[in-house]
Protein backbone atom coordinates (compact mmCIF):
# COMPACT_ATOMS: atom_id res chain seq x y z
CA UNK A 1 0.00 0.00 0.00
CA UNK A 2 1.99 2.87 -1.30
CA UNK A 3 1.27 6.26 -2.71
CA UNK A 4 0.63 4.65 -6.08
CA UNK A 5 -2.74 3.33 -4.88
CA UNK A 6 -2.90 -0.39 -5.57
CA UNK A 7 -6.02 -2.13 -6.88
CA UNK A 8 -8.72 -2.18 -4.22
CA UNK A 9 -7.81 -4.17 -1.19
CA UNK A 10 -10.10 -7.27 -1.17
CA UNK A 11 -10.42 -7.02 2.60
CA UNK A 12 -11.65 -3.43 2.26
CA UNK A 13 -14.06 -4.36 -0.48
CA UNK A 14 -15.60 -7.09 1.67
CA UNK A 15 -16.47 -4.77 4.56
CA UNK A 16 -19.61 -3.73 2.71
CA UNK A 17 -19.00 -0.10 3.64
CA UNK A 18 -19.60 2.47 0.92
CA UNK A 19 -16.54 4.41 1.96
CA UNK A 20 -13.78 2.54 3.77
CA UNK A 21 -10.66 4.33 4.97
CA UNK A 22 -8.09 2.05 6.57
CA UNK A 23 -4.79 2.87 8.21
CA UNK A 24 -4.52 6.19 6.37
CA UNK A 25 -1.63 8.47 7.29
CA UNK A 26 -0.44 11.43 5.34
CA UNK A 27 2.63 13.63 5.35
CA UNK A 28 3.05 16.62 3.05
CA UNK A 29 6.41 17.24 1.39
CA UNK A 30 9.52 15.09 0.91
CA UNK A 31 10.71 12.81 3.71
CA UNK A 32 13.16 14.63 6.01
CA UNK A 33 11.18 17.86 6.24
CA UNK A 34 7.68 16.53 5.71
CA UNK A 35 4.70 17.81 7.70
CA UNK A 36 2.63 15.01 9.15
CA UNK A 37 -1.08 15.82 8.76
CA UNK A 38 -2.88 12.55 9.52
CA UNK A 39 -1.94 9.40 11.45
CA UNK A 40 -3.62 6.00 11.31
CA UNK A 41 -7.17 6.94 10.40
CA UNK A 42 -9.73 4.12 10.24
CA UNK A 43 -13.22 5.06 9.19
CA UNK A 44 -16.10 3.32 7.46
CA UNK A 45 -19.34 4.84 6.18
CA UNK A 46 -22.37 2.65 5.51
CA UNK A 47 -24.26 3.27 2.32
CA UNK A 48 -26.59 6.22 2.77
CA UNK A 49 -24.96 7.35 5.98
CA UNK A 50 -24.39 11.03 6.79
CA UNK A 51 -21.17 11.50 8.74
CA UNK A 52 -19.62 14.80 9.82
CA UNK A 53 -16.05 15.50 10.82
CA UNK A 54 -15.30 18.24 13.31
CA UNK A 55 -12.00 19.25 14.78
CA UNK A 56 -9.70 22.20 15.41
CA UNK A 57 -8.16 24.05 12.50
CA UNK A 58 -5.18 22.31 10.93
CA UNK A 59 -6.04 18.84 12.24
CA UNK A 60 -6.26 17.40 8.74
CA UNK A 61 -9.98 17.43 7.93
CA UNK A 62 -9.55 18.75 4.40
CA UNK A 63 -6.62 16.40 3.88
CA UNK A 64 -8.77 13.43 4.86
CA UNK A 65 -11.51 14.54 2.49
CA UNK A 66 -9.06 14.94 -0.39
CA UNK A 67 -7.71 11.46 0.28
CA UNK A 68 -11.23 10.00 0.48
CA UNK A 69 -12.03 11.51 -2.92
CA UNK A 70 -8.86 10.25 -4.56
CA UNK A 71 -7.54 13.78 -5.14
CA UNK A 72 -4.55 13.09 -2.91
CA UNK A 73 -2.85 9.71 -2.61
CA UNK A 74 -2.19 8.91 1.06
CA UNK A 75 1.36 8.29 2.23
CA UNK A 76 0.13 5.14 3.97
CA UNK A 77 -3.12 3.20 3.99
CA UNK A 78 -5.91 2.62 1.53
CA UNK A 79 -9.34 3.90 0.60
CA UNK A 80 -12.12 2.11 -1.17
CA UNK A 81 -15.36 3.52 -2.50
CA UNK A 82 -18.08 0.96 -3.04
CA UNK A 83 -15.43 -1.71 -3.33
CA UNK A 84 -13.28 0.16 -5.87
CA UNK A 85 -10.21 2.36 -5.68
CA UNK A 86 -10.96 6.12 -5.50
CA UNK A 87 -9.44 6.65 -8.95
CA UNK A 88 -11.91 4.14 -10.32
CA UNK A 89 -14.74 5.98 -8.55
CA UNK A 90 -13.58 9.28 -10.02
CA UNK A 91 -13.38 7.77 -13.49
CA UNK A 92 -16.96 6.56 -13.23
CA UNK A 93 -18.05 9.86 -11.70
CA UNK A 94 -19.36 8.35 -8.49
CA UNK A 95 -18.14 11.25 -6.34
CA UNK A 96 -19.74 14.66 -5.92
CA UNK A 97 -17.95 17.49 -4.13
CA UNK A 98 -18.81 20.85 -2.63
CA UNK A 99 -16.22 23.20 -1.17
CA UNK A 100 -16.36 26.43 0.74
CA UNK A 101 -15.89 28.25 -2.57
CA UNK A 102 -18.81 27.43 -4.90
CA UNK A 103 -16.23 27.30 -7.74
CA UNK A 104 -18.78 28.00 -10.47
CA UNK A 105 -17.34 28.91 -13.86
CA UNK A 106 -18.14 32.60 -14.34
CA UNK A 107 -18.59 32.38 -18.13
CA UNK A 108 -21.37 29.78 -17.85
CA UNK A 109 -24.84 30.29 -16.47
CA UNK A 110 -26.20 28.06 -13.71
CA UNK A 111 -27.59 25.54 -16.17
CA UNK A 112 -24.31 25.44 -18.09
CA UNK A 113 -22.34 24.90 -14.90
CA UNK A 114 -24.52 21.96 -13.92
CA UNK A 115 -24.65 20.39 -17.37
CA UNK A 116 -20.90 20.68 -17.69
CA UNK A 117 -20.72 17.72 -15.32
CA UNK A 118 -22.08 15.49 -18.09
CA UNK A 119 -19.89 17.06 -20.80
CA UNK A 120 -16.58 16.51 -19.03
CA UNK A 121 -15.35 12.89 -19.12
CA UNK A 122 -18.45 12.22 -21.19
CA UNK A 123 -17.80 8.54 -21.71
CA UNK A 124 -18.73 7.83 -18.11
CA UNK A 125 -21.62 8.64 -15.83
CA UNK A 126 -25.12 9.82 -16.81
CA UNK A 127 -25.40 11.32 -20.31
CA UNK A 128 -28.23 13.65 -19.44
CA UNK A 129 -28.96 15.66 -16.36
CA UNK A 130 -32.42 16.70 -15.24
CA UNK A 131 -31.29 20.23 -14.54
CA UNK A 132 -34.76 21.63 -13.97
CA UNK A 133 -35.60 19.08 -11.29
CA UNK A 134 -32.26 19.70 -9.59
CA UNK A 135 -32.72 23.46 -9.64
CA UNK A 136 -36.23 23.12 -8.25
CA UNK A 137 -34.94 21.01 -5.39
CA UNK A 138 -32.42 23.71 -4.41
CA UNK A 139 -34.92 26.51 -4.98
CA UNK A 140 -33.15 28.00 -8.00
CA UNK A 141 -35.68 27.26 -10.74
CA UNK A 142 -35.85 30.96 -11.66
CA UNK A 143 -32.08 31.37 -11.81
CA UNK A 144 -31.23 28.74 -14.44
CA UNK A 145 -30.11 31.26 -17.03
CA UNK A 146 -28.26 33.56 -14.64
CA UNK A 147 -24.50 33.87 -14.46
CA UNK A 148 -22.77 33.31 -11.10
CA UNK A 149 -22.03 37.03 -10.62
CA UNK A 150 -25.76 37.73 -10.70
CA UNK A 151 -26.38 35.41 -7.76
CA UNK A 152 -26.06 35.95 -4.01
CA UNK A 153 -23.57 33.87 -2.04
CA UNK A 154 -26.30 31.55 -0.82
CA UNK A 155 -27.68 31.07 -4.34
CA UNK A 156 -24.19 30.27 -5.62
CA UNK A 157 -23.73 27.61 -2.97
CA UNK A 158 -27.17 26.20 -3.86
CA UNK A 159 -26.03 25.96 -7.47
CA UNK A 160 -22.86 24.19 -6.34
CA UNK A 161 -25.04 21.78 -4.37
CA UNK A 162 -27.18 21.07 -7.43
CA UNK A 163 -24.00 20.51 -9.44
CA UNK A 164 -22.70 18.03 -6.85
CA UNK A 165 -25.93 16.02 -7.02
CA UNK A 166 -26.13 16.23 -10.82
CA UNK A 167 -24.40 12.93 -11.51
CA UNK A 168 -26.29 11.04 -8.79
CA UNK A 169 -23.08 10.37 -6.88
CA UNK A 170 -22.76 7.48 -4.47
CA UNK A 171 -20.45 9.55 -2.29
CA UNK A 172 -20.72 13.23 -1.54
CA UNK A 173 -17.71 15.04 -0.05
CA UNK A 174 -18.38 18.44 1.46
CA UNK A 175 -15.66 20.66 2.91
CA UNK A 176 -17.19 23.45 4.98
CA UNK A 177 -19.71 24.19 2.24
CA UNK A 178 -21.72 26.69 4.29
CA UNK A 179 -18.84 28.39 6.10
CA UNK A 180 -18.96 31.57 4.00
CA UNK A 181 -22.69 32.13 4.42
CA UNK A 182 -24.51 34.31 6.93
CA UNK A 183 -26.03 32.47 9.88
CA UNK A 184 -29.66 32.60 8.74
CA UNK A 185 -28.86 31.30 5.25
CA UNK A 186 -26.56 28.73 6.74
CA UNK A 187 -29.24 27.29 8.99
CA UNK A 188 -31.73 27.19 6.14
CA UNK A 189 -29.21 25.41 3.90
CA UNK A 190 -28.81 22.60 6.45
CA UNK A 191 -32.40 21.53 6.12
CA UNK A 192 -32.42 22.02 2.35
CA UNK A 193 -29.41 19.74 2.15
CA UNK A 194 -31.14 17.17 4.35
CA UNK A 195 -34.26 17.19 2.21
CA UNK A 196 -32.25 16.64 -0.99
CA UNK A 197 -30.12 14.00 0.66
CA UNK A 198 -33.16 12.10 1.93
CA UNK A 199 -34.58 12.03 -1.57
CA UNK A 200 -31.39 11.25 -3.46
CA UNK A 201 -29.74 8.70 -1.22
CA UNK A 202 -26.08 9.63 -1.20
CA UNK A 203 -23.48 8.76 1.39
CA UNK A 204 -22.11 12.03 2.76
CA UNK A 205 -18.85 12.93 4.45
CA UNK A 206 -19.22 16.50 5.70
CA UNK A 207 -16.52 18.68 7.23
CA UNK A 208 -17.59 21.60 9.41
CA UNK A 209 -16.44 23.84 12.23
CA UNK A 210 -19.94 24.18 13.58
CA UNK A 211 -20.89 21.58 16.18
CA UNK A 212 -24.58 22.48 15.89
CA UNK A 213 -24.42 21.96 12.14
CA UNK A 214 -22.74 18.57 12.58
CA UNK A 215 -25.35 17.40 15.09
CA UNK A 216 -28.28 18.70 13.05
CA UNK A 217 -27.16 16.92 9.91
CA UNK A 218 -25.44 13.70 10.87
CA UNK A 219 -25.99 10.09 11.76
CA UNK A 220 -22.55 10.13 13.31
CA UNK A 221 -20.01 12.81 14.21
CA UNK A 222 -16.29 12.09 14.06
CA UNK A 223 -13.96 14.21 16.16
CA UNK A 224 -10.50 14.61 14.72
CA UNK A 225 -7.74 16.20 16.79
CA UNK A 226 -4.03 16.62 17.29
CA UNK A 227 -1.09 17.11 14.96
CA UNK A 228 -0.95 14.83 13.10
CA UNK A 229 -4.74 14.41 13.21
CA UNK A 230 -6.13 11.29 14.82
CA UNK A 231 -9.65 10.04 15.54
CA UNK A 232 -10.60 11.32 18.98
CA UNK A 233 -14.23 10.21 19.11
CA UNK A 234 -17.03 8.71 17.06
CA UNK A 235 -20.39 9.87 18.41
CA UNK A 236 -23.67 8.46 17.09
CA UNK A 237 -26.48 11.01 16.75
CA UNK A 238 -29.70 9.19 17.55
CA UNK A 239 -32.08 11.99 16.74
CA UNK A 240 -35.17 11.05 14.73
CA UNK A 241 -35.45 11.94 11.05
CA UNK A 242 -36.71 13.85 9.19
CA UNK A 243 -35.21 16.66 11.23
CA UNK A 244 -36.53 20.17 11.46
CA UNK A 245 -35.04 23.47 12.52
CA UNK A 246 -37.17 23.50 15.69
CA UNK A 247 -35.43 20.32 16.86
CA UNK A 248 -32.25 22.33 17.46
CA UNK A 249 -33.90 23.59 20.66
CA UNK A 250 -34.72 20.10 21.98
CA UNK A 251 -32.91 18.78 25.02
CA UNK A 252 -31.31 15.74 23.34
CA UNK A 253 -29.93 18.02 20.63
CA UNK A 254 -28.41 20.48 23.09
CA UNK A 255 -27.06 17.58 25.10
CA UNK A 256 -25.21 16.17 22.09
CA UNK A 257 -23.82 19.60 21.24
CA UNK A 258 -22.47 19.95 24.78
CA UNK A 259 -20.92 16.49 24.71
CA UNK A 260 -19.15 17.17 21.42
CA UNK A 261 -17.96 20.62 22.54
CA UNK A 262 -16.36 18.93 25.54
CA UNK A 263 -14.45 16.64 23.20
CA UNK A 264 -12.94 19.45 21.12
CA UNK B 1 -62.90 35.15 -39.26
CA UNK B 2 -59.40 34.01 -40.06
CA UNK B 3 -58.64 37.34 -41.77
CA UNK B 4 -59.98 39.22 -38.79
CA UNK B 5 -57.59 37.35 -36.58
CA UNK B 6 -54.81 38.02 -39.14
CA UNK B 7 -55.45 41.76 -38.80
CA UNK B 8 -55.32 41.48 -35.07
CA UNK B 9 -52.01 39.72 -35.30
CA UNK B 10 -50.55 42.15 -37.81
CA UNK B 11 -51.21 45.26 -35.78
CA UNK B 12 -49.01 44.21 -32.84
CA UNK B 13 -46.34 43.16 -35.35
CA UNK B 14 -46.21 46.67 -36.80
CA UNK B 15 -46.10 48.13 -33.34
CA UNK B 16 -43.30 45.78 -32.38
CA UNK B 17 -41.34 46.76 -35.49
CA UNK B 18 -41.74 50.39 -34.59
CA UNK B 19 -40.58 49.67 -31.07
CA UNK B 20 -37.56 47.78 -32.35
CA UNK B 21 -36.68 50.62 -34.70
CA UNK B 22 -36.91 53.09 -31.86
CA UNK B 23 -34.76 50.87 -29.71
CA UNK B 24 -32.05 50.52 -32.35
CA UNK B 25 -32.09 54.30 -32.92
CA UNK B 26 -31.54 54.83 -29.21
CA UNK B 27 -28.74 52.24 -29.28
CA UNK B 28 -27.10 53.96 -32.27
CA UNK B 29 -27.33 57.32 -30.50
CA UNK B 30 -25.67 55.79 -27.43
CA UNK B 31 -22.81 54.42 -29.54
CA UNK B 32 -22.26 57.77 -31.24
CA UNK B 33 -22.32 59.54 -27.89
CA UNK B 34 -19.86 57.07 -26.41
CA UNK B 35 -17.46 57.38 -29.34
CA UNK B 36 -17.70 61.18 -29.17
CA UNK B 37 -17.09 61.05 -25.42
CA UNK B 38 -14.04 58.83 -25.87
CA UNK B 39 -12.66 61.11 -28.60
CA UNK B 40 -13.13 64.31 -26.62
CA UNK B 41 -10.10 64.02 -24.30
CA UNK B 42 -7.52 63.09 -26.97
CA UNK B 43 -8.86 65.74 -29.37
CA UNK B 44 -8.79 68.48 -26.72
CA UNK B 45 -5.33 67.65 -25.44
CA UNK B 46 -3.96 67.02 -28.93
CA UNK B 47 -5.32 70.37 -30.11
CA UNK B 48 -3.69 72.12 -27.17
CA UNK B 49 -0.32 70.50 -27.91
CA UNK B 50 -0.60 71.46 -31.60
CA UNK B 51 -1.34 75.09 -30.66
CA UNK B 52 1.69 75.28 -28.33
CA UNK B 53 3.87 73.59 -30.95
CA UNK B 54 2.72 76.04 -33.64
CA UNK B 55 3.23 79.05 -31.38
CA UNK B 56 6.70 77.89 -30.36
CA UNK B 57 7.84 77.28 -33.95
CA UNK B 58 6.57 80.70 -35.03
CA UNK B 59 7.79 82.73 -32.05
CA UNK B 60 11.28 81.18 -31.92
CA UNK B 61 11.65 81.06 -35.72
CA UNK B 62 12.66 77.41 -35.62
CA UNK B 63 13.87 76.33 -39.09
CA UNK B 64 11.56 73.97 -40.99
CA UNK B 65 14.18 71.22 -41.38
CA UNK B 66 14.57 71.08 -37.59
CA UNK B 67 10.93 71.16 -36.49
CA UNK B 68 8.13 71.70 -39.00
CA UNK B 69 5.03 73.69 -37.96
CA UNK B 70 2.00 71.43 -37.46
CA UNK B 71 0.25 73.08 -40.39
CA UNK B 72 2.96 71.84 -42.73
CA UNK B 73 2.72 68.30 -41.37
CA UNK B 74 -1.03 68.33 -41.83
CA UNK B 75 -0.60 69.70 -45.35
CA UNK B 76 1.87 66.92 -46.17
CA UNK B 77 -0.51 64.33 -44.75
CA UNK B 78 -3.51 65.65 -46.69
CA UNK B 79 -1.73 66.21 -50.00
CA UNK B 80 -0.21 62.69 -49.96
CA UNK B 81 -2.93 60.91 -47.96
CA UNK B 82 -3.11 58.05 -50.45
CA UNK B 83 0.61 57.45 -50.15
CA UNK B 84 0.52 57.38 -46.33
CA UNK B 85 -2.54 55.14 -46.41
CA UNK B 86 -0.77 52.63 -48.65
CA UNK B 87 2.45 52.65 -46.66
CA UNK B 88 0.55 52.47 -43.37
CA UNK B 89 -1.39 49.53 -44.74
CA UNK B 90 1.89 47.72 -45.48
CA UNK B 91 3.17 48.31 -41.94
CA UNK B 92 -0.15 47.38 -40.35
CA UNK B 93 -0.21 44.14 -42.36
CA UNK B 94 3.29 43.17 -41.27
CA UNK B 95 2.50 44.00 -37.65
CA UNK B 96 -0.74 42.02 -37.69
CA UNK B 97 0.73 38.89 -39.27
CA UNK B 98 3.64 39.17 -36.84
CA UNK B 99 1.23 39.52 -33.93
CA UNK B 100 -0.65 36.44 -35.08
CA UNK B 101 2.50 34.33 -35.41
CA UNK B 102 3.99 35.61 -32.15
CA UNK B 103 0.73 35.02 -30.29
CA UNK B 104 0.23 31.51 -31.62
CA UNK B 105 3.84 30.60 -30.88
CA UNK B 106 3.59 32.04 -27.37
CA UNK B 107 0.30 30.19 -26.75
CA UNK B 108 1.69 26.83 -27.78
CA UNK B 109 4.83 27.29 -25.74
CA UNK B 110 2.88 28.62 -22.75
CA UNK B 111 0.64 25.55 -22.75
CA UNK B 112 3.73 23.33 -22.77
CA UNK B 113 5.40 25.39 -20.03
CA UNK B 114 2.30 25.53 -17.83
CA UNK B 115 2.18 21.73 -17.85
CA UNK B 116 5.84 21.03 -17.29
CA UNK B 117 8.21 22.69 -14.84
CA UNK B 118 11.04 21.12 -16.83
CA UNK B 119 10.05 22.88 -20.04
CA UNK B 120 9.37 26.07 -18.11
CA UNK B 121 12.86 26.13 -16.60
CA UNK B 122 14.44 25.08 -19.89
CA UNK B 123 12.67 27.60 -22.08
CA UNK B 124 12.65 30.74 -19.94
CA UNK B 125 16.35 31.52 -20.50
CA UNK B 126 15.75 31.31 -24.24
CA UNK B 127 12.75 33.61 -23.99
CA UNK B 128 14.79 36.02 -21.89
CA UNK B 129 17.62 36.01 -24.42
CA UNK B 130 15.13 36.90 -27.14
CA UNK B 131 13.74 39.66 -24.96
CA UNK B 132 16.90 41.38 -23.67
CA UNK B 133 18.38 41.65 -27.15
CA UNK B 134 16.93 44.85 -28.61
CA UNK B 135 15.09 44.59 -31.91
CA UNK B 136 17.58 46.99 -33.51
CA UNK B 137 20.13 44.18 -33.08
CA UNK B 138 17.87 41.51 -34.53
CA UNK B 139 16.50 43.58 -37.40
CA UNK B 140 19.68 43.75 -39.57
CA UNK B 141 20.39 40.09 -38.83
CA UNK B 142 16.91 39.10 -39.95
CA UNK B 143 17.28 41.19 -43.09
CA UNK B 144 20.55 39.37 -43.71
CA UNK B 145 18.93 35.98 -43.20
CA UNK B 146 15.54 36.49 -44.82
CA UNK B 147 16.19 39.24 -47.39
CA UNK B 148 14.46 42.56 -48.01
CA UNK B 149 10.93 41.18 -48.43
CA UNK B 150 8.06 40.99 -45.98
CA UNK B 151 9.46 38.01 -44.07
CA UNK B 152 11.99 39.71 -41.77
CA UNK B 153 9.44 42.41 -40.82
CA UNK B 154 6.85 39.85 -39.89
CA UNK B 155 9.40 37.85 -37.91
CA UNK B 156 10.65 40.87 -35.98
CA UNK B 157 7.06 41.84 -35.18
CA UNK B 158 6.38 38.26 -34.05
CA UNK B 159 9.51 38.23 -31.93
CA UNK B 160 8.61 41.41 -30.10
CA UNK B 161 5.02 40.25 -29.52
CA UNK B 162 6.16 36.89 -28.23
CA UNK B 163 7.52 37.61 -24.76
CA UNK B 164 4.65 39.51 -23.10
CA UNK B 165 2.21 36.96 -24.49
CA UNK B 166 4.28 34.06 -23.21
CA UNK B 167 4.80 35.32 -19.68
CA UNK B 168 1.20 36.39 -19.21
CA UNK B 169 -0.27 33.26 -20.69
CA UNK B 170 1.84 30.98 -18.49
CA UNK B 171 0.69 32.94 -15.44
CA UNK B 172 -2.91 32.88 -16.65
CA UNK B 173 -2.94 29.15 -17.35
CA UNK B 174 -1.90 28.56 -13.76
CA UNK B 175 -4.47 30.98 -12.33
CA UNK B 176 -7.25 28.42 -12.06
CA UNK B 177 -9.07 28.60 -8.69
CA UNK B 178 -8.03 25.43 -6.83
CA UNK B 179 -11.58 24.42 -5.93
CA UNK B 180 -12.72 24.63 -9.56
CA UNK B 181 -9.76 22.44 -10.45
CA UNK B 182 -10.72 19.99 -7.71
CA UNK B 183 -14.28 19.75 -9.05
CA UNK B 184 -12.85 18.87 -12.48
CA UNK B 185 -10.44 16.35 -11.04
CA UNK B 186 -13.15 14.69 -8.96
CA UNK B 187 -14.93 13.68 -12.18
CA UNK B 188 -11.68 12.60 -13.81
CA UNK B 189 -11.42 15.38 -16.40
CA UNK B 190 -8.56 14.78 -18.83
CA UNK B 191 -5.61 17.16 -19.12
CA UNK B 192 -7.05 18.38 -22.41
CA UNK B 193 -10.45 19.04 -20.84
CA UNK B 194 -8.88 20.95 -17.97
CA UNK B 195 -6.87 22.99 -20.49
CA UNK B 196 -9.77 23.72 -22.80
CA UNK B 197 -12.62 24.19 -20.35
CA UNK B 198 -10.74 25.64 -17.37
CA UNK B 199 -7.20 26.89 -17.96
CA UNK B 200 -7.68 28.72 -21.25
CA UNK B 201 -10.86 30.55 -20.22
CA UNK B 202 -9.31 31.61 -16.91
CA UNK B 203 -6.17 32.71 -18.82
CA UNK B 204 -8.12 34.93 -21.21
CA UNK B 205 -8.00 38.13 -19.12
CA UNK B 206 -4.22 37.71 -18.84
CA UNK B 207 -4.02 37.01 -22.55
CA UNK B 208 -5.88 40.15 -23.49
CA UNK B 209 -3.81 42.32 -21.18
CA UNK B 210 -0.70 41.02 -22.96
CA UNK B 211 -2.30 41.39 -26.37
CA UNK B 212 -2.79 45.10 -25.81
CA UNK B 213 0.89 45.51 -25.06
CA UNK B 214 2.07 43.19 -27.82
CA UNK B 215 -0.12 44.74 -30.52
CA UNK B 216 1.63 48.09 -30.10
CA UNK B 217 5.07 46.53 -29.77
CA UNK B 218 4.44 44.73 -33.07
CA UNK B 219 4.12 48.05 -34.87
CA UNK B 220 7.49 49.09 -33.43
CA UNK B 221 8.96 45.79 -34.59
CA UNK B 222 7.66 46.21 -38.13
CA UNK B 223 8.89 49.82 -38.31
CA UNK B 224 12.37 49.01 -37.02
CA UNK B 225 12.64 46.12 -39.49
CA UNK B 226 11.54 48.39 -42.34
CA UNK B 227 14.09 50.94 -41.25
CA UNK B 228 16.84 48.32 -41.55
CA UNK B 229 16.09 47.48 -45.15
CA UNK B 230 12.88 47.85 -47.08
CA UNK B 231 11.40 49.58 -50.08
CA UNK B 232 8.04 50.35 -48.52
CA UNK B 233 6.21 50.79 -45.25
CA UNK B 234 6.12 53.68 -42.80
CA UNK B 235 9.52 52.73 -41.36
CA UNK B 236 11.05 53.03 -44.81
CA UNK B 237 9.25 56.32 -45.48
CA UNK B 238 10.51 57.79 -42.19
CA UNK B 239 14.06 56.52 -42.78
CA UNK B 240 14.23 58.13 -46.23
CA UNK B 241 12.63 61.38 -45.06
CA UNK B 242 15.03 61.49 -42.14
CA UNK B 243 18.08 61.30 -44.34
CA UNK B 244 16.58 64.06 -46.57
CA UNK B 245 15.93 66.27 -43.54
CA UNK B 246 12.26 66.18 -44.61
CA UNK B 247 10.93 66.50 -41.06
CA UNK B 248 7.35 67.20 -42.18
CA UNK B 249 7.19 63.73 -43.73
CA UNK B 250 8.79 62.20 -40.63
CA UNK B 251 6.04 63.70 -38.46
CA UNK B 252 3.37 62.70 -40.95
CA UNK B 253 4.72 59.16 -40.67
CA UNK B 254 4.53 59.33 -36.89
CA UNK B 255 0.92 60.44 -37.10
CA UNK B 256 0.16 57.55 -39.44
CA UNK B 257 1.71 55.17 -36.89
CA UNK B 258 -0.42 56.73 -34.17
CA UNK B 259 -3.53 55.96 -36.17
CA UNK B 260 -2.37 52.38 -36.68
CA UNK B 261 -1.80 52.00 -32.96
CA UNK B 262 -5.17 53.49 -32.10
CA UNK B 263 -6.94 51.19 -34.55
CA UNK B 264 -5.20 48.10 -33.16
CA UNK B 265 -5.94 49.12 -29.60
CA UNK B 266 -9.61 49.74 -30.35
CA UNK B 267 -9.94 46.43 -32.23
CA UNK B 268 -8.51 44.50 -29.30
CA UNK B 269 -10.69 46.32 -26.78
CA UNK B 270 -13.72 45.48 -28.89
CA UNK B 271 -12.73 41.83 -29.13
CA UNK B 272 -12.04 41.73 -25.41
CA UNK B 273 -15.42 43.16 -24.58
CA UNK B 274 -17.06 40.55 -26.79
CA UNK B 275 -15.20 37.56 -25.43
CA UNK B 276 -14.71 38.62 -21.84
CA UNK B 277 -18.19 39.84 -20.97
CA UNK B 278 -18.12 37.49 -17.98
CA UNK B 279 -14.92 39.08 -16.74
CA UNK B 280 -16.24 42.62 -17.06
CA UNK B 281 -18.96 41.63 -14.65
CA UNK B 282 -16.33 41.22 -11.96
CA UNK B 283 -15.28 44.84 -12.25
CA UNK B 284 -16.95 47.43 -10.03
N1 LIG C 1 -0.50 21.42 0.32
C1 LIG C 1 0.04 21.35 1.54
N2 LIG C 1 1.38 21.33 1.70
C2 LIG C 1 1.94 21.24 2.92
N3 LIG C 1 1.25 21.19 4.06
C3 LIG C 1 -0.10 21.20 3.99
C4 LIG C 1 -0.77 21.28 2.73
N4 LIG C 1 -2.09 21.28 2.96
C5 LIG C 1 -2.24 21.20 4.30
N5 LIG C 1 -1.05 21.14 4.92
C6 LIG C 1 -0.84 21.01 6.37
O1 LIG C 1 -1.49 19.85 6.82
C7 LIG C 1 -2.19 20.09 8.03
C8 LIG C 1 -3.65 19.77 7.86
O2 LIG C 1 -4.23 20.68 6.94
P1 LIG C 1 -5.76 20.63 6.53
O3 LIG C 1 -6.01 21.65 5.50
O4 LIG C 1 -6.14 19.23 6.20
O5 LIG C 1 -6.46 21.05 7.90
P2 LIG C 1 -7.99 21.33 8.20
O6 LIG C 1 -8.35 20.48 9.36
O7 LIG C 1 -8.81 21.21 6.99
O8 LIG C 1 -7.94 22.82 8.68
P3 LIG C 1 -9.09 23.94 8.57
O9 LIG C 1 -10.10 23.60 9.60
O10 LIG C 1 -8.40 25.20 8.90
O11 LIG C 1 -9.64 23.88 7.18
C9 LIG C 1 -1.90 21.52 8.40
O12 LIG C 1 -0.87 21.52 9.35
C10 LIG C 1 -1.42 22.17 7.13
O13 LIG C 1 -0.44 23.13 7.42
MG1 LIG D 1 -9.93 22.57 5.77
What does this structure look like?
- Chain A has 264 residues and is α/β, with parallel strands linked by helices.
- In chain A, 33% of the residues lie in helices and 22% in strands.
- Chain A contains nine helices and nine strands.
- Chain A has a six-stranded mixed β-sheet, with helices on both faces. Chain A has a three-stranded antiparallel β-sheet with strand order 2-1-4, covered by helices on one side.
- In chain A, strand 1 and strand 2 form a beta hairpin.
- In chain A, helix 5 packs across helix 6, helix 6 packs parallel to helix 7 and helix 8 crosses helix 9.
- The radius of gyration of chain A is 18 Å and the shape is globular.
- The N terminus of chain A is likely disordered.
- By secondary structure, chain B is mainly alpha-helical.
- Chain B has two domains: 61 residues; 213 residues, MetI-like fold (Orthogonal Bundle).
- The site of magnesium ion has 3 residues of chain A, from helix 2.
Uncertain regions spanning at least 5 consecutive residues of chain A? 1-6
Q: How much of the residues of chain B is beta strand, in percent? A: under 5%
- Biggest beta sheet attributes of chain A: 6 strands, mixed
Radius of gyration of chain A: 18 Å
Between the first and last Cα atoms of chain B, what is the distance in angstroms? Answer: 56 Å
Structure class of chain B: mainly alpha
Number of helices of chain A: 9
SSE string of chain B:
HHHHHHHHHHH
Strand content of chain A: 15-25%
Instruction: Classify the helix fraction of chain B into a percent range.
Output: over 70%
**Extended strand count of chain A:** 9
Largest sheet of chain B: none
Amino acid sequence: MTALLPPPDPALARTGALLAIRGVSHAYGPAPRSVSALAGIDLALRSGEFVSIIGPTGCGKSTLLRIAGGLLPPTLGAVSIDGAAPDEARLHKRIGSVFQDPALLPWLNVRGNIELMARVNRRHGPRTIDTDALLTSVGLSDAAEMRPHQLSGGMRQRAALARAFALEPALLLMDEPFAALDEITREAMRYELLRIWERRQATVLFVTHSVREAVALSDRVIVLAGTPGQLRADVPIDLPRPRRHEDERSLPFLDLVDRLRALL
Amino acid sequence: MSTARGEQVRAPVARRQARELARSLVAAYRVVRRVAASLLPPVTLGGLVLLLWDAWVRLRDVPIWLVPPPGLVLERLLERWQFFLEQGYVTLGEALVGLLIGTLGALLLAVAMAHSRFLERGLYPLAIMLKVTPVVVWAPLFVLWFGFGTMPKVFIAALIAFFPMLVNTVTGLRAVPPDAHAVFRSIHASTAEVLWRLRLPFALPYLFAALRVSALLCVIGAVVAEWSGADRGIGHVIAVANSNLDTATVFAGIITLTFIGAILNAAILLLERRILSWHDAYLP
